[in-house]
Amino acid sequence: MTDTQQDTRAGFVALIGEPNAGKSTLLNRMVGAKVSIVTHKVQTTRARIRGVALAGASQIVFVDTPGIFRPKRRLDRAMVSAAWGGAADADVVVLLIEAHRGLTEGVEAILTALEERSGPAPIALAINKIDRVPAESLLALTKKMNDRYAFTETFLISAEKGRGVEDLRDWLAGKLPEGPWLYPEDQIADLPLRMIAAEMTREKLTLRLHEELPYQLTVETEKWEERADGSARIDQIVYVARDGHKGILLGKKGETIKAVGRASREELEKFLDRRIHLFLQVKVRPNWLEERDRYGEMGLDFNDGD
C-alpha cells in the first residue's frame, strides 16, 4: 500500500455483456492470473467471480458476471439475476461487446435494461476483439453505440492480445472511491479455493465434451485434505442428469475422465504451486438443476431461478 492511507482507492467493477463477449478473458488479463473459466462455449461463467487487480494506489475488484441472455431454465434465470446483481452493486460498470458483431439484439436488450436500472455508477463501453474488423468499422460502431447510449467513456480493446487493456485499467483505477484496500495485497480472488478447483475441472470437461452436455453437469469439491508433505488431496464429484451422460463423461475404459482429471490436476498444480492429488467421481442426479444445495455450491441464489 502507499504511505498515506487516504491516497488509496478501492471499489468494484462489474463486467457485463452477452455470453462469449470476452468478459472472462478480460478479467484474467486484468488480474494477471486465471481466475475465471474461459472456453469457446457460451454461458460458461455461472457465478460472479471476483478477481482483484492493482493499478498504482488503486485496488480494482472485478465482478465477472455470467453473460446476459434470454433465460429458459431455473439455472439460466439464476445466472442472469447474478449478472444484474453484480452490475447493481458496482462502483463502475463496463459493457463489453464484440467488434465484429456490433449492436446485436442481445446488446440492444442490455442497453434497454441499463436505461431502466441505471444508477449513479459510471458506465463505460469496451469494444472487444478489435483485431477482427477494419479501423473504419470501429469508428462507425463507436459512433453508433454512443448515439444509442450516453457512455461515460469508450475503449477499443483486444482482451486476448492485451491491446488497450492498460488504458481501461488506468481509467477504472481513477474512477474508484477513495478508501482503504478491500483485500490483502497478494490476494487475486475472493472465491474459496474449493470453488476455483471445481471451476477448473468444469472448464476441462466443457472443452472436452460435445455441445449439449456441459450445461447438464456441475462439479463440486467434496473434500480437501492437506498433507504433511505440503501436497493436497482433492476429491471432486461431477454431477450429471442422466445415465447416458455418465457414460459420455467416463469414455471408453474411463479414458475421458482420466484425461480431464490429468489436465485439471496440472492446472491446479500450476495455480497453487504445489503437488495435487485429484480424484474425480461421476454421479447421476436426475434433478440436480432443481436442488438448492447445488446452486449454493455454484455461488448462485436458488430463489433467483423462480
From TrEMBL:
G2: annotated span: 43-47
Matches recorded under InterPro entries: G_ERA_dom, GTP-bd, GTPase_Era-like, KH_dom-like_a/b, KH_dom_type_2, KH_sf_prok-type, P-loop_NTPase, Small_GTP-bd
Assembly with partners or alone: Monomer.
Gene Ontology BP term (one): ribosomal small subunit assembly
Domain Era-type G: 9-178
Region span, G4: 128-131
Keywords linked to the UniProt accession: Cell membrane, Cytoplasm, GTP-binding, Membrane, Nucleotide-binding, Ribosome biogenesis, RNA-binding, rRNA-binding
Region (G5): 157-159
Subcellular location: Cytoplasm; Cell membrane
Positions of region (G3): 64-67
Topology relative to the membrane: Peripheral membrane protein
Keyword Membrane in annotation: yes
Ranges for domain KH type-2: 209-286
Entry's Gene Ontology cellular component terms: cytosol; plasma membrane
Keyword Transferase among UniProt keywords: no
Region (G1) location: 17-24
Protein name per Swiss-Prot or TrEMBL: GTPase Era
Principal localisation: cytoplasm
Domain of life: Bacteria
Residues holding GTP: 17-24, 64-68, 128-131
A Gene Ontology molecular function term of the record: GTPase activity
Role of this protein: An essential GTPase that binds both GDP and GTP, with rapid nucleotide exchange. Plays a role in 16S rRNA processing and 30S ribosomal subunit biogenesis and possibly also in cell cycle regulation and energy metabolism.
Similarity comment: Belongs to the TRAFAC class TrmE-Era-EngA-EngB-Septin-like GTPase superfamily. Era GTPase family.
Gene: era
